[in-house]
Write a structure and sequence with these properties.
mainly alpha
Length: 150
């Protein structure tokens, strides 16, 4: 995501790599494509800002991963292109979207759409849903035996 959505992505990553509710579990692999300033500036300079997330997805993503695209409008071109690239690579795509989902909705295997045009309300709902999702991920992975408690 961009702007506040980029911050939300980073927030959710820290809940996975660090922990959310279960402090006694091992870390989960997760990364936000918004944190490497060298990649951000070089990709934007060489390929254009619209390719920012796509280039990283192509280089880092693999089958079995899950990509989470966040867009309050549902129409952020760089997010949409990365979602499409992820699907083309066989990566499942989940969207946190606003408004009516916008164009991004077409590239989501599953989506949480906040039916509002207000950016603040959408972002508030996204972070609440993000916390619920992180708790669910922890619980399911622990129950399945994948995520061993320390």
């Amino acid at each position: 995501g961009n702007g506040g959505s980029a911050a939300d992505a980073q927030h959710m990553v820290c809940e996975l790599v660090g922990s959310f509710m279960k402090k006694d579990r091992r870390a989960l692999p997760a990364m936000a494509l918004t944190v490497n300033s060298s990649s951000i500036t070089s990709i934007s300079n060489d390929f254009g800002y619209e390719m920012l997330f796509t280039r990283q997805m192509e280089g880092l993503g693999k089958v079995g991963d899950i990509a989470l695209g966040i867009s309050t409008s549902g129409n952020s071109k760089n997010v949409i292109l990365a979602m499409k690239a992820a699907q083309d690579m066989g990566i499942k795509v989940f969207g946190f979207l606003g408004c009516k989902g916008g164009e991004a909705l077409k590239y989501c295997d599953k989506a949480f759409v906040v039916p509002s045009d207000g950016t603040g309300r959408i972002q508030e709902a996204h972070i609440t849903a993000g916390h619920a999702l992180m708790e669910n991920v922890e619980d399911r992975l622990i129950e399945s035996g994948y995520l061993n408690l320390l």
